[in-house]
Amino acid sequence: MTPCSRQKNDRYFSSRRHIESRTPYQMEYRIIRKDGSPCWVSERGNCIRDEKGSPLYLDGVIPDITAIKIRSLLAG
């Protein structure tokens, strides 16, 4: 499994675990923009459910945290 495939797999199972346990989720990961440059994001949210408790959709935000990651790496 490639590192990219492993990362996608980890994100899938992490969000799935939070949906099943009915807890908010948060994860950080790297993506590649269309121009080929790397970008770090912090995804967090909740699963919205219907009146029977079945999942309807995920509601959340995915802000770009690349500048924060770079500062952290430079600070050592």
Provide tags for this entry:
elongated, single chain, alpha+beta, Complement Module, domain 1, about 40% helix, about 80 residues
Rounded radius of gyration (Å): 15 Å
Number of strands: 3
Described by the principal axes of the CA atoms, the overall outline is elongated
The CATH architecture would be Ribbon
Number of domains: 1
Percent of residues in helices: 25-40%
- The ordered string of helix (H) and strand (E) elements is HEEEH
Termini Cα gap: 30 Å
> Would you identify the regions where 5 or more consecutive residues have pLDDT less than 50?
none
The largest sheet, given as strand count, sense and whether it forms a barrel, is:
3 strands, antiparallel
User: Helix/strand/pairing class, anyone?
Assistant: alpha+beta
Instruction: Give the integer mean of the pLDDT values.
Output: 87
Strand order of the largest sheet: 1-2-3
Task: Write structural notes for this entry.
The two termini are 30 Å apart. The chain is 38% helix and 36% strand. It has a single domain (3-75), classed as Complement Module, domain 1 (Ribbon), CATH 2.10.70. The model has no long low-confidence stretch (mean pLDDT 87). It has 76 residues and is an alpha+beta fold.
Topology, please?
Elements: H1 3-21, E1 25-32, E2 38-49, E3 55-61, H2 66-75
Antiparallel strand pairs: 1-2, 2-3
